[in-house]
Specification:
Elements lengths: L3 H22 L5 H6 L6 H27 L7 H23 L6 H6 L2 H34 L3 H50 L2 H10 L18 H18 L1 H9 L3 H35 L14 H8 L5 H32 L10 H53 L5 H15 L24 H19 L9
Helix pairs in contact: 1-7, 1-13, 3-6, 3-7, 3-10, 3-11, 3-13, 4-9, 4-11, 6-7, 6-13, 6-14, 7-8, 7-11, 7-13, 7-14, 8-11, 9-14, 9-16, 10-11, 13-14, 14-15, 14-16, 15-16
InterPro entries: Na/Glc_symporter_sf, Na/solute_symporter, Sodium:Solute_Symporter_SSF
Main location: membrane
GO molecular function: symporter activity
Length: about 500
């Protein structure tokens, strides 16, 4: 049960997090300080912030549920992540650092045209606001159950706190709160695993029983692309998925530019991969441990009809010691806030630099950036409200539509780096073709099943690879089909 000690622990944590924003506000003298922390932030803090942004509450709550119901085969995504890290460090980070960009999409106007830059910024903003709504909805659903409050209140508390410290502290507050929240998240997972291991006979016994139940299986070498849990999907196709996020997402680019040079930006990127593997392992083992606790050893019975997504929240509320439960709920808040703060900072930067064309070198746009932090924070909150109204069906739709944008974005950047003489109209049209290429291989959520039947349904890691390939091929064809015209740069 949630006790007075748990409440004190949770409130104290939230007060400290909010206070950090006020503290760091004194160091923001202008737009560059607010958005990039002055460009000299420690690489290790940036690396922790990168993974804190990436894992979100989905890892804290979703990984245990995934292992509880299946196994650890999605750990194979780290193979694809390793390749993506190498490519980002080789292709993307050096270019961004040398050009000194304030927005990732600034490169696209330099290479092609303003319409291409705007298209990429629109794709990114649509993808991120949908993702933000989902990342707020999931943990808030759990928090509302744990705290016995309305889900709308849980969303609002999470949003308001993240907006407050981001509004005042900018990227410095985001990074340092992410560092703190990462350790709360990781510590919460360790505490859970220790509690489970103590109850089932120790670490060795927990590992043995988990292996017997098939929960520790992590590799599947089959070649079925419709299954996300194979090496072909999670290890190979996932390369494009992770490359699109790490190389084209303003949240990541913003952090690369907060490092003082290329070497430190690469250090932060590699550290984020290493920490991501540790966090993934930890929370997959939490799920395996919970299976041993409730099913193999049967230390305690689960309520009738409890789904696998509800097992971990049940454990937190009913089995964890008093005071620790409050810390674990704080970890869920931490994961949700670390997703929101990064999103609204990146969206504010994209709005000011890409859509409004503000030049930070010619004026102080600090207040303008802060206003857009507020605006995007409110929009992210409303997106989470829409998820509540739509429930699971809307989440499925949002996942589909976000997958439409990431692949074409990656395709546009690859063209900018390796085919800078491609005609802007061809690049623009190629991105649209890339989106359309995904439709024959996916179910379209807005259409009834009887009206649209995919040719072949690929699993989710393939979506960015398919749409990226469509973008590159489409742009190449249009480049040669359209008559040559002189590109007009705005």
């Amino acid at each position: 049960m949630f006790t007075a000690l748990d409440t004190f622990t949770l409130v104290a944590y939230l007060v400290v997090i909010s206070g950090l924003g006020i503290f760091f506000s004194r160091q923001n003298k202008g737009f560059h300080d607010f958005m990039f922390g002055g460009g000299r932030m420690p690489w290790w803090a940036i690396g922790i912030s990168l993974i804190a942004t990436s894992v979100s509450a989905t890892t804290f709550l979703g990984n245990p549920a995934d292992t509880y119901g299946t196994n650890m085969t999605l750990l194979m995504c780290n193979f694809g992540g390793l390749v993506a890290i190498v490519l980002v460090g080789w292709w993307f980070i050096p270019r961004f650092q040398r050009l000194g960009v304030t927005s990732a999409y600034e490169v696209l106007e330099q290479r092609f045209s303003r319409p291409v830059r705007l298209l990429a910024a629109v794709f990114y903003s649509a993808h991120l606001i949908l993702r933000t709504g989902m990342l707020l909805y999931g943990p808030s659903l759990v928090l509302s159950q744990l705290l016995n409050v309305s889900i709308y209140l849980a969303i609002c508390v999470t949003s308001v706190l993240a907006i407050v410290y981001t509004y005042f502290g900018g990227l410095r507050a985001v990074v340092w709160t992410d560092v703190m929240q990462f350790f709360v998240l990781f510590g919460g997972g360790l505490l859970t695993l220790w509690t489970v291991a103590s109850a089932v006979g120790g670490w060795g016994e927990m590992g043995r029983l988990a292996a017997e139940a098939g929960k520790t299986t992590w590799f599947d070498g089959s070649l079925d692309p419709s299954n996300a849990r194979t090496f072909l999907s999670a290890g190979v196709a996932y390369i494009a998925f992770d490359l699109a996020i790490r190389g084209c997402d303003q949240q990541f680019v913003q952090r690369y530019m907060a490092c003082k040079d290329i070497r430190e930006a690469n250090y932060s990127s590699v550290l984020s991969l290493f920490l991501g593997l540790l966090v993934g392992l930890l929370f997959y083992w939490v799920g395996a441990g919970l299976f041993v606790y409730f099913q193999s050893v049967q230390v305690q019975a689960l309520p009738e009809g409890l789904g696998r997504n509800d097992v971990f929240p049940f454990f937190l509320l009913n089995i964890m010691p008093s005071g620790i439960t409050g810390l674990m709920v704080a970890a869920i808040f931490a994961a949700a806030m670390s997703s929101l703060d990064s999103a609204i900072t990146a969206l504010s930067n994209t709005t000011v630099t890409d859509f409004l064309r503000a030049d930070p070198a010619r004026g102080d746009h600090l207040q303008q950036a802060r206003i857009w932090v507020l605006v995007w924070g409110v929009l992210g909150t409303l997106a989470a409200f829409v998820c509540v109204l739509g429930e699971a069906s809307l989440l499925t739709k949002a996942l589909f539509f976000t997958s439409l944008f990431t692949g074409p974005l990656l395709g546009i950047f690859l063209l900018a780096f390796f085919a800078p003489k491609a005609r802007p109209r061809a690049v623009f049209g190629g991105a649209i073709i890339g989106m359309l290429c995904l439709l024959p291989f996916s179910k379209i959520p807005v259409l009834p099943d009887h009206l649209w039947e995919p040719i072949y349904t690929f699993s989710w890691p393939w979506n960015p690879l398919i749409s990226m390939t469509g973008t590159l091929v489409g742009a190449a064809l249009l480049h040669f089909l359209w008559p040559r015209t002189k590109a007009v740069h705005a």
